[in-house]
Structures are given as structure tokens and as C-alpha cells.
Amino acid sequence: MSETSTATPTTEGAARSRAGTGRPPWTLSGGAVLVAALFALPGGYVLWRALTGGALHLLTERRTLEPLWRTAQLAFLVSASAALLGTALAWLTVRTDLPLRRFWRVVAPLPLVYPSFVGAAAFRSGLTPGGIVHDLAGHLGIDFQFRLHGLAGAWLVLTLFTYPYVYLPVAARLSALPSSLEENARLLGDRPLQVFRRVVLPQASSSIAAGSLLVFLYTVSDFGAVHLMRFETLTQTIYRTRLFDQGRSFALALLLLALALVVIAAERTVARRGSRTEVVEDRSSLRIPLGRWKASAVATCSLVVGLALFAPAVSLADWGLFGWFRQRRGLAGLRLDWGDVAGATWSTVWVSMVTAVAAVAVVLPVAFLLARHRSRVGGIVNGVVVAGFAIPGLVVAISLIFWTLHASPFEFLIGTMPILVFAYVVHFGALALRTAQVAVSAVPRRMDDAARLLGAGRLRRLLTVDLPIMAPGLAAGAGLVMLSTMKELPATLLVSPIGFRTLVVEIWDTYEALYLAEMAILSLVLVAISALLTWFLVVRRADHLS
Amino acid sequence: MHSPSTHARRLGAGALLVSGLLVGAASLTACGSDGQQSITIYSGRSEKLVGPIFEAFSAETGITVEARYGSSNDMALTLETEGDKTTADLFLSRSPGPTGYLDDLGMLAGLDEDVLAEVDAANRSSGGTWVGFAGRARVLVYNIDEVAEADLPDSVFDLTGHEYAGLVAVPGSNSSFQDWFTVFRLRNGDAVAISWLDDMVANGSHFYPKNRAIVEAVGRDEVRFGLVNHYYNHQEVAKNGDDQRSANHAFAPGDDGGLMIIATASVLESSDDKDLASQFLAFLLSDAQQRYLTDTVFEYPLATGVAPATRLPERPADTVGAVDIDDMAAEFKRTIEIIEASGVLDQ
Asked: What is the ipTM of this complex?
């Protein structure tokens, strides 16, 4: 493929890839519609229960509209700040001569793996009396009174734990961009920040928009962080009323879904208007020298990763050590069975890897349809698949239990691994779709055309032309799915085979019993495992492929 | 850079690996039914608390226990959704609310007389569909460095006074608090209950999402008092010894602040193994397991004739289960609406 590696953007190619080439083949639309039908199961259940629940009149009441407003406010704020952080980090780690780049590339996506109740608890408790920050300040003679809660608390915690949704796709996009544009800009005298604004930003805009959308949807469906930060959003009411007032619970879930669909449609409109440049990998690995900006760049990365990854880890380690000392002093010992921890670690690893690959494979036809063809079907399929991410995990689990047992021939699958993986895929497929779509549109149609002229069949073209070029994007999407699956709790509790325990299940169990030391140690194991997997499967693989 | 065919081979191998894993996983779950007796329990109580009981039962009877854990509300919701196709034989709940909800749906079986006879009438359902197996008292937890024992209040109604302004934590969204508030409301009437909660809000009480968080915060004097279940403090003291700077205070006998909330056990109507389930209930109410629940978990035993651990305060006179609630869903819905309207969740 070396003869193509010098390809530069051409207006002709860009125009073709944007407009799409006519009507999609029926196999492709058929496949995409089938995928969408599966993804529509949770949303369909919500719609049906909301319509028959007799509580739709609540949607215009003040007690509904206030949480809706708070939810939207929080989600927009978090999306904006996560977009800023994710994009800045991606550019610094991929396109500049930032020192220790490989280190930053391994650690930057990791904050995603903190379950939000763990991350929020670590932040809250670190700052209160008995927490590490408060006590250190006390030693220095400072009476530390700052408390994290409400909108500010939820915003900070969610921003820090969701920016990887932007970082990973943008980093993948930037690593596939030809460096010639930046090089030209630089030769023409632009400083790094100008290069970033004038060249990088327009090229990466579709990835930034896609990532920000994911942040938005994660925020509206999050329960753990807003619960601990005492910020009343829609999901809080949905959880509070889930058993005794189901009509209201499902009416609010429908409202959440509607909010998500509006934002998804808006993002698609923006993304389709944005310019696209065909790219292929360019191994003339140009790095913009940061020059005198180097120190501030390192400071930025350290601050973000320090707050999002290391601060919670230190707070957790503080609890873990406390438990260890407690044991040494003859008080209650650590109640951890290392055999169980090893078992849960292995379960976490393999189920998240299987889910990641399955999710990418399932959304691929949808990605091709969206990126290569303009059709009304595409818009609908996109909305359905992406909305799966905005539905709280508990609702996804309950709806799949319902469909499986009461309206499908697959009753025998209840409580088995396939149904759990299916639940994960439906919930997290959106994460793979957005990056896969960007990856597909990055494949030059010229190459596909050439292969066709040479007599290559569709499957062969997919395997030999499309997939290799798309690999970094697909790997980034798979990484997002993997990290999200590793921390998924509600569906894991409700639809997994009985006795199947992942690390998060163990973490939740210790948290419920207030074994904070044990919870902290298990959380650190989760972070360490995800660091290893990110390194082997996402970072090293991306390096390998480019 | 690798040639395209290498990529194709790799992708093929990857697909093969994944399908292998999936098939393997499916077959793993398919086997396991080899005639051995087993029961399935959906447990709203954490594995750390009830796991040892399940293990002891298996060891003694040879009956395998399959347990799914989650919050009591989620377990009840799952059972409702599964309907008569559920594989669960038993449901253990943190409180009577979710159990009563399933009872109203007609999903619970009548229990054996032998089992019912183990528990006082006040601690089981009048319809004979569930029994309490452990109780938690509602108490006021306080910081022992900042509050003198003599100054502690007799009644939960005292907490709306100005001397408690800004000092009390209320777990407004917590299900135990909702259980307690529902009974408080039914005993005193909506008007009294609503004005008490409004006064608490006006008095600057703080909202915390969980009981445990309150006990922990009181120990650190982040907040001085908290309305919680009694056993969290005992567990914290057991873990931290003298470092735990909090203690429980029981309101005066008969005060509405000190109700007991009971954890309940029930058998699903759809169960094919009701005999085994009944055997488990008898085991759960046996002296040995009731002693474990009171000596190790620090709850009140509910089987007749078993004395509470000596370190526990006196057993409260009234329990949440003692108040018969006709329509569980409607009463809890009303409770949630009142709590939301009070604004306590924004405190």
C-alpha cells in the first residue's frame, strides 16, 4: 500500500465521499435495518410502557420540567468541557513532540474506567474530614472547607471521567490525518496553536462532534455521579420511582429518550455539513515541535490526567492502606478472597473483549450505510443505535428480560452469557458506531473503485482495502466499548448468569457493605487491568497499524 | 506495514477466536443441571451479609444455592418483569415495601404454618406470605465528641427545634427512610408527617443519599446527627474500634422515630421447589443463623426465643411490618411524592 501513502486530499474525492454514491445495496440497508431492530428493543419497551402507563400528563408539570432543565444544563456543560479537554489531549499526544508521549497515550483514556459512583465517592470523600486532601491541608494548618456537590460537583466529576469519549476518537482521527497540511501551515509561519485552530480543528471536527455526543448521552443517563453529588436529574427520579410508580418512571425515561434523539439528530446534521478529507495513513510521522509551549503542554496533560486518574487513585489507595493498617493493628482484617478477585478479573477481561469485538462487528454495516450513502433509512438507523447509549442500564436490562421471556423464541437464553453480551452491545454499540463511521468515511473511494476494476469481490474488498485502513478508528471504538463494559453494573447484576461476577460487581458489593478499604483495592485492580488492556489492545495496536 | 492478506488472515483468526469464546460461554452455561437439588434466591441483601448463611445451608443440606444480588427494588422489579417465568424460588428483601408490592401482584406463595409459627405475628404478613428474619431499629446517630449524652432528644419531633438547625442529616432518597416515613405518615396522618418534614427542611437539615454515608460523615463530624438504621454504627465500631467517633441514640420508647424495619423472606408462587424453599426459611430462622445475624451483622433476631446481641439497644416496640398496608405501591408512590415536594432532596 506504499503507493497510496502519499495521497493528499482531493476535492473530487471529498465531494464523492460526502455525497455518497446513490442508493445503498439492499444487503447493506437490510443488514442495517436488522441491527436497528435489535437496538430498538429497549427504546420500544420504554415507549410502550410510557404510553400505557397513564402518566404522560406529568411531562408538562413543573416537577418534571425542572429536572429536565437541570439534566440538559449539566449535559451541555459536561459535553463542552470534555470536548475541549479530549481534543487538546489528543492533539498534544498524537501530533506534537510532547515528552513521554507513549505514557500519556496509555493513561489518557483510563479515567473512563472508573465506575461513576466510585469516582464521585473518591472525590467527595477526599475533600471531607478524614479524606486525604482535607487532612493534608489540616497538617499545613489550613481549615479546608471546600465541599464538592451539586451542579459544580457533578460537572467536574463527569467531565474528568468522560473526556476519553472525545479523546479516543479524535486521537484515532488525527493519527490518520496526512501531516502535509500541518507541515504546510507550519512552513508558512503558523505557531502551534494557530496550526491547531486552522488545520487540525476543521479536520477533526466530525470526530469531536461524535465524541461530544457520546459525552452528552452518557451524562443524561448517568446515575452514580449525580446521585452522590446530590444533583437532581431525570435519572434520579427514574430510579426513585422505578418500582412503586412505574408509569412516571417510564414517562420520564421516554422524555430522556426524546432529549437524546433531538441531540443525536442535531449532531448528524452538523456532521453531514462538516468538511471531510479523505485520508490514508501517513508514516512520515511529523510532530509539531512545541518549542516554548512545551512546559505548558506538559502541565496541561499532568493537570488533567492527575485530576481524572491519579487523584481518585490516591484517594482510593488512602482507603486501601487504611484497611491494611487496620488489619495490622489487630482490628477487622481485610475481607478479600484473592481467588474471587482473580476470578472476577478474568471474567471482566474476557467479557469486555468479546463485547468490544461483537459491538464493532454489529455496527459495521450501519457505519458503511451512514458514511457511504445518503438515505432516510440511515438517519433512522443512526438515531436508534445511538439512542441505546442514552437509556439507563437498568432500563436496558429490564426491557431485554421482558422481550426475551415474553415475546421471543429465545426464552432459553435468559441468564446466559449471550444475552448479557447482547445487552452490553445494545447499550454500548453507539460507542463503536461513531468512530467506525468516521473510519469508513476516511477510506478513499478511489482505492475501492480500483480494487473493483481489478475484479475483487465485495467481501475481499472489505477485508483487504477497507478494514486495514479503518483499523485505528475501529480499535478506538472497540476500546471505548471495552472500557465501558468493564464498569457496567446494572445490566451485569440483572441479566448475567447467576454467579457470574465481574470486578464492578465485587466493588459494588463491598461498597454496599461499606468495606471502603476493600472497595478501594478492587477499584485499583480494575484501573490497573484496564491500563494493561488499553496498552496492549488500543495503543500498541494503533502504533502497529500506522 | 503488513500486506493486505496478513490483515485478512488476522481478522479471520480474530473472528474465529470470538465465535469460539461465545460458543464456549454458551455451552458452559448450558450444563450444570445434573439432578442435584438447588434453589434460586434473589437477594436484596448484600452477599457480605447473607452469603455465609447460603453457604452454611448448602453445607448442611447438600442443596445448592444460586443467588442473584441487587437492590431490593431492582430485584422486585426483575421478578415482576419475569413474571411466572422467573427461575427464582425465594426473595429476600431489605424491607417489607418491595415484598408487599409483589404480594399485591399475587406473586407470593402462602408459607408453611411451621415457618410462620417461628415469628411473632407483628413481624410477618397477615396474609401469611412473608416472614421477617432480621430487624433494624431507626435511631439517631451522633458524634460523641461534640454531643453530651444528656442533651440527646427523646422524640424525632424535637429535631425540628432551633438547637438542631443545620445539624441533622436525612437520607431522603434512601429506601429504609421511605419505609420509615410511610409508616410514620400512616400513624400520624399526612398533615403531621408533611409538616414535620417541611420543618426539618426549614431547619436546614442536610440530605445524604445513603445511611452509611451519614454514619461515616457523623464519625468525622462533617454533620453532627443523622437519622439512620442502627447497625451501620455497630459495623463501623467493629471495624475501627475507638477511632469511630459516633454512637447510636434510641428515641424514647414508643416514639415514632424508633420504629423497627424488618428484612423479609418470601417464596414465589411460581416456584417448583416450594419444599426446598420452606426448608431454607426454617434454616434462616434457626437459632444458629439468627445468632449469626445478631452477633456478626448486629441486627435484631426475629425468630421467637432468640435474644438480641447484648450490645444492641433495647428492641423497639413497633415495627414497620406491624402496620398493615393495603396498597403498597400507592402508599410508597405518595411517600416519594411528599419527600420530593418537601425539597429535602435539594438540601
From this structure: 0.88
